[in-house]
Write the structure tokens for this entry.
Amino acid sequence: MTEAVAQLNESLLAMLQQETFVLLNTVDAESGGPTSTAISWIYAVSPSTLRLSVDHRSRLVNNMKVNPMVTITVFGEGTVHAINGRAAVKQDPLADVPFKMCCFDISIEAVRNALFYGAQLDSAPRYLKVYDGRAAEKLDAQVFAAMQKA
């Protein structure tokens, strides 16, 4: 592990300004234990702020409202990055999307290389959207546009 910095480097910033998936780690509001969920509605607003949106039916919304401490795990640049920060509601509900979502800003407190010593990722994980491709593109465009306006 390397020393933590308090903002995204240029390549992480560029990577998170495009569609990617990450793991969002929160503290469960009921059990107090850790949770981890893959999300793709996330982008970097600036080197010190990430913005993400979550469907209101998800437990993640309440988790972040009750305990704002989060870790976002990013796979890229040949490594695994752990981004620690605090979530704050940016817009609730998120405007101009077809269902109720909550938009959060994450104030970055630390960015660390979380891959074990001596290892390098051979490739970043990839995913496929297995439902209606046109519907997925339309929804993604609506959500990202609304997040950018929030």
Summary: The chain has one domain: 10-149. The chain has a mean pLDDT of 93. The chain has three helices and seven strands. The radius of gyration is 15 Å.
